[in-house]
Amino acid sequence: MSVENASVFTDQLPLDADNLSQSLTSSLIVQAIVWSRSNVWSLVLTVVVGLLIYDQISYIIKKGSIAGPKFKVWPVIGPFLESMNPKFEEYKAKWDSGPLSCVSVFHKFVVIASNRDLARKIFNSPSYVKPCVVDVAIKLLRPTNWVFLDGKAHVDYRRSLNGLFTRQALGVYLPHQETIYDKYFERFVALSKSNKGPLPFMPEFRELNCAVSLRTFCGEYITEEQVKIISDNYYKITAALELVNFPIILPFTKTWYGKKITDMTMDIFAKCAQMAKDHIAQGGDVTCVMDAWVKLMHDSKNSTSDDNDEVKKFLVRDFTNKEISETIFTFLFASQDASSSATTWLFQIIADRPDVMAKIREEQLRVRDGDVHRRLDVDLVESMEYTRMVVKEALRYRPPVTMVPYVAKKSYPISADYTIPKGAMVIPTLYPALHDPEVYENPDEFIPERWVANSPATNAAKNWLVFGTGPHVCLGQTYVMLNLTAMMGKAALFYDWKHTVTEKSENIRVFATIFPDDDCILEFSKRADPTKL
Ligand code: HEM
């Protein structure tokens, strides 16, 4: 019964002595209820108003002198709704608003550093900051995952992984990658034929990259069927790990689906790790990243105390199947969106520039010495200088990762007049440094030749932030350059692809990384004679 109804009820009681006392008692109780309820409400209201004022004051104090809204326009939630569907132009406007700017979403205060020197400073301040993956990432990648290690523990673990990406190791993985390129390029032609015309290729490039990564990491231990399941479902993991997401995993939400696919993938990886252990124990050769890792473990166990070899350099210990599966998952996670973004832009950019395509083809014929069917090896890929410049320029022009979220472990005096508060998210941005007109003339134009030896771009190593810098710099960067160069060289040599340009083609859509907003509409066909220019 509501308070108003109770009062109407008491008003209608007959007035004899008993009834009077009853009625008085009832009336007092009702008044007490009304009083206590109104007191509860005023208490609730006071607390809410107090919290709102605290939220605004706390924001204004944390903001200090840096760029950003004067107060939180949407109390508490801040620009949460906008960040559910982030727009590249809005990010860019933020970067342009000042070298340091801020935003506050719920209880999270976020500081964005948009120039090269501040971004580098953050990347290189491990005593003040550590990588901040979205809250839900800890649940998906598991708290025991090496990526959440900090300081010396992180440096040591990482050292044991360096052996997986040496030039020699990359040479072993390359033939497997080439088999996947061949298979998928043929599939692209078949798809274009069956579709009787162009179709959006971004989802196809995502699948190609997932397959390349899975074969590189797990070799033949992973089945075709498993590759297909993971490739088909990987986007659910990306969706679960968007920068802004609900932190609790509720059934049938994006994060719930993401967690299911992550667990399934890690289980597959753990089984592959055991197969790699059995294979190396039987004296098998290294064929993939897992083999390379197990071989390093095997060699380190059998190395003598005065061995001064690779093994000691990499500080390898014994890793369990669970650890291997979690770590290999981080490789897939780190690689998938960024490599798919780079691949999509590369196919679009090259299709739109016949002069670039012609130069790649000329180089491919030249470096292969007339043998177009020569299989890929590291020496061959390293001799593709122009193709490599195209890849490098695409990564600068459309950097897949535009920002890397870190978190301040303690108050961080980043400049003479601003200290980032402890607990704030700190985001060094990569895009502005890679579009700095002082280093890259006409930064919004695609010019592969700017990467010739001794050019201003080549000499400005400090601006090359595509892979980050500092203790968390991308572990896969040499592999990425080799993979993308090899893949684009082969595609250009054997295939034609036509781009259907739409008004959205040059618009940048943010989905973890960046993609053309129309998903890159292409039509593939096989070249009749790859020996011709
Ligand atoms: C175009 C492709 C790629 C781009 C643009 C890219 C970019 C990045 C960036 C910006 C970071 C953060 C660096 C920092 O905080 O300083 C990173 C970290 C990382 N990347 Fe990549 N990445 C790519 C592909 C790959 C691939 C293929 C692998 C694995 C084979 C990989 C493995 C990693 C790992 C493990 C980390 C975390 C390292 C650590 O915390 O110590 N990435 N990457």
Sum up the structure in keywords:
533 residues, alpha+beta, Cytochrome p450, 5-stranded mixed beta sheet, 20 helices, 9% strand, disordered N terminus, binds protoporphyrin IX containing FE
Verbal overview:
This protein has 533 residues and is an alpha+beta fold. The chain folds into two domains: 58 residues; 398 residues, Cytochrome P450 (Cytochrome p450). The strands form four sheets. The protein has a five-stranded mixed beta sheet with strand order 1-2-8-5-3. It has a three-stranded antiparallel beta sheet with strand order 4-12-9. α15 packs across α20. The chain is globular and about 105 Å long. The protein binds protoporphyrin IX containing FE (HEM). Protoporphyrin IX containing FE binds next to α14 and α20. InterPro entries: Cyt_P450, Cyt_P450_CS, Cyt_P450_E_grp-IV, Cyt_P450_sf.
Number of strands: 12
Bound small molecules, by name, code or SMILES, are: protoporphyrin IX containing FE
Helix percent band = 55-70%
Distance, first to last CA = 86 Å
Indicate the overall shape. Answer: globular
Could you tell me the strand content as a percent range? 5-15%
What CATH calls the topology of the largest domain is: Cytochrome p450
The total count of helices amounts to 20
* CATH class type of the largest domain: Mainly Alpha
Oligomer: single chain
The named CATH superfamily of the largest domain: Cytochrome P450
Gross CATH architecture of the largest domain: Orthogonal Bundle
Mean pLDDT across all amino acids: 88
How many strands, what sense, and barrel or not for the largest sheet?
A: 5 strands, mixed
**Rg to the nearest angstrom?**
29 Å
Derived from helix and strand composition plus strand pairing, the structural class reads alpha+beta
Count of folded domains:
2
